[in-house]
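Hi W.,

Here's what went into the run:
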Amino acid sequence: MQANSSIVKTLTRRFFDRMPHIVAPELLGKCLVAHDGRMVRIVETEAYAQDDPAAHTFRGETARNRSMFGPPGHMYVYFSYGVHWCANVVCGPKGFGAGVLLRAAQPMAGIDLMEAARGNVAFKQLCNGPGKLAQAMGIDRHADGTDVVGGGPFTVIDDAHAPVTVIACPRIGISKAVEAPLRFVIADNPFVSKRPMAR
DNA sequence: CGGCAGATGGGCT
DNA sequence: GCCCATCTGCCGC
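Here's what came out:
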């Protein structure tokens, strides 16, 4: 191994077999890879558990949120405000509707494909929001329920670079449990959707 | 430049 | 009506 080459590890199913508030900060710095070469480094996540009034699973299983009740390590993709797709990774035990929303990421590879998908926007705005991230990566309804540990169209890997400094802060764009510090960002990363409030 | 009001839009309850 | 969002335009610093 050369000094600046990364060590890529495939995440195990067990990584996602824990509660979302544990998995969400640990996903920071991990990478999401698509089959066509597009890759992003995750810089912002939010945790949603079944007992959380802000979670889609709070009122039980429906056709829309079904994949969140399935086994961990799979995608939950939902259609937001009639316009955007948003990607989550299911976590927690099977049968417990929980997951981590992928809110923002840093483009790493396949930039030309991301720009084609997102249109004429600044580089920093390619993936700095959940809808933008999904659009840039080509994530839509077809990815719902697919495996992110391996074998699916998108895979989460640990492309280890440097350790990250994690900041926890309130989530964005919700109307219930608005103060819970379940949003996690990499400190001082320019690709987050909104800077966390200074503390 | 940042912040905010308004419009947009589909699927849920 | 409500909602885990985004874009545009308009303000004020």
